[in-house]
Amino acid sequence: AVLDGVTMGGGCGVSLHGAYRVATENTKLAMPECAIGLFPDVGGSWVLPRLSHNVGWYLGLTGVPINGAEALAVGAATHFVRSEDCARIDETIEHASSESLGDDHARRAMVGRAIDSLAVSPAEAGMEVKLDLEGIARCFGPGRSVEDTLKLLDVEDAAWAVSAAKRIRRGSPLSLRLTQAMLEAGARAASLQDCLTMEYRMVCRVVKEPDFKEGVRALLVDKDNKPTWMHASLADIPLADVERFFAPMERTESELFASVDDATPSKL
Asked: What is the pTM of this model?
């Protein structure tokens, strides 16, 4: 996958699971779903917890975009290539698809060699990592509640922390709760299939909630950027309200996959 531009939400879903994930100087990667009353789905529960320095929690809770150098540094990207060279990757993929190379492994290796030959350091393209990775690791991650993260951000003496806290507080409290629980579960998951099962259960319920409709209205339809969330604060959301989103579907045939295990946070 070539991340040569805005890569957000569903764009992350069709790119971050690839064997080769190529960032460029144009990359702008984000998971802003909490701002519309949703959560980082499309396999986000598998990818985000596996990024270094707990950056997955930072991305999921704040929606802050990161650049190509940062995507490479935390593991969201596997390579950095100048945007002007991306067409050569497309040519190699087209060539590999038409060649009788024997199997998919050989085709993948051919594409990998081509990307390796074009890869440069972000610095060569004038890009740098601006994220405070150590600070993010201190404030975000597993074993912390959203409230814990906000407290840590509030005492962090840095502009990025002030901005991150503001973004979190603007998000849907329900979405924030669900995202933290989902990332905790995803970190323990045995497979992407387990994560997709969990996310499907969640999304089937979240889209029926007032927050999703209100978030879409405020940010995408009316664009007043003033959503009125169902809960006034995180404290208003009881644990049982979170757990019900992760429960198995009422009917087995309604599950995403034909045969699944119980993918609740406590079981993953």
From this structure: 0.91
Convert the pLDDT of each residue in 84-143 to its tens digit: 999 988 887 777 666 665 677 887 888 888 899 999 999 999 999 999 999 999 999 999
**Nearest to 48, CA basis, from 13, 21, 19, 23:** 13
Kindly report the three-state secondary structure assignment for every residue of the chain: CEECCEEECHHHHCCCCCCCCEECCCCEEECCHHHHCCCCCCCHHHHHHHCHHHHHHHHHHHCCCEEHHHHHHHCCCCEECCHHHHHHHHHHHHHHHHCCCCCHHHHHHHHHHHHHHHCCCHHHHCCCCCCCHHHHHHHCCCCCCHHHHHHHHHHCCCHHHHHHHHHHHHCCHHHHHHHHHHHHHHHHCCCHHHHHHHHHHHHHHHCCCHHHHHHHHHHHHCCCCCCCCCCCCHHHCCHHHHHHHHCCCCCHHHCCCCCCCCCCCCCC
Strand order in the sheet with 22-23: 2-3, 22-23, 79-80
